[in-house]
Amino acid sequence: MYWCTDEVEPHDRFDYWREVRAKGLFGVTAELERERRGDFYGEFSLRQLSGAGLVELKASHYAVERSNSDIGYAPGDSICVYQQLGSGGWFGGMRGSDFAIANGSFATSHTDQPYRTAPLGAGGFHLRILKIPVRGLATQDKRMGELAPKTFNDPTLAPLLGACFADLGEAAADDHGTVGATSPVQTSLVQALAHLALIERGIVRPGSRLGQAALRTARLSQARRLIARYLQDPDLAPTKVADLLGVSVRHLHMLFEAAERSFSQTVTDERLKQSRRLMREAPDRLIADIAASCGFESLATYYRVFNAAYGMAPGDFRAQGPERR
């Protein structure tokens, strides 16, 4: 589902957003000074993934409250994991719990705890929210219902959360937003994000079965993203990725052993996919230049690996034309 205020007449945009989208869909109360409503803009997407809802929201500045009456009107009983993408936001409403969340940072809460929130500065809202029903989690603990909004304080978890959020978005895009999609990849990422949040809140122990499973899933996601970041380095080795990930080389290989491909196979596959993308996007670029930019140590190696994977030379692949690739 995707919706934006361009679908409504300008003078009705904020009222529609407040009554139909904010209250009807998210169970919150939206407020904005009447003189500023004519310039209001908002858009959001919602994807259902393995029982959870992934929302990305962008909107101009307004204030949001989820009051006790809102909770009574639309109870959720879900864990929310927030990723701030814009200039920053403020959460508050409970004594002693006010906090700011910076761009790229994360926060968690239970849906049925009251709060107030507003963007920091004039930039408005831009954030992702993963809403995970408690009944769908592998762990059940009454303390989850008491989680007031709180920012993440463990810096080691932030890159793991970021990698899982990015992979979940890509997995959703691959499924073209299919309603009710339940692919194993999506399920493992949703569970990992939920249990990483519960690790941070002290409800799940990192060394428990659920904690270890979440950390494995998240570290594998981050390892793959580190590979993509350093793909053009022909000397990219497990030691570098393991160091950046903060684990031993043995642990890194164990992460990939549980996946479909080993570390070296993953690096090669990513280099080949990147080279194919570049041949599509830059048809006049020299193949030798593409091979080098993807981290292949020599043109001969690139031709050999490409032919083994696809049964043709890179030049033949390029000659097929975009309609046959």
From TrEMBL:
Q: Which residues form the HTH araC/xylS-type domain?
A: 221-320
Cleaved signal peptide residues: none
Q: Which UniProt keywords apply?
A: DNA-binding, Transcription, Transcription regulation
- Which InterPro entries is this protein grouped with? AraC_XylS_family_regulators (IPR050204), Homeodomain-like_sf (IPR009057), HTH_AraC (IPR018060), HTH_AraC-typ_CS (IPR018062)
Give the stretches traversing the membrane: none
Coiled coil regions in record = none
Q: Does the keyword Transcription regulation apply?
A: yes
Instruction: Kindly name one Pfam family recorded for this protein.
Output: HTH_18
Which PANTHER family does the entry mention? ARAC SUBFAMILY, HTH-TYPE TRANSCRIPTIONAL ACTIVATOR RHAS-RELATED
Can you say what this protein is called? Answer: Helix-turn-helix transcriptional regulator
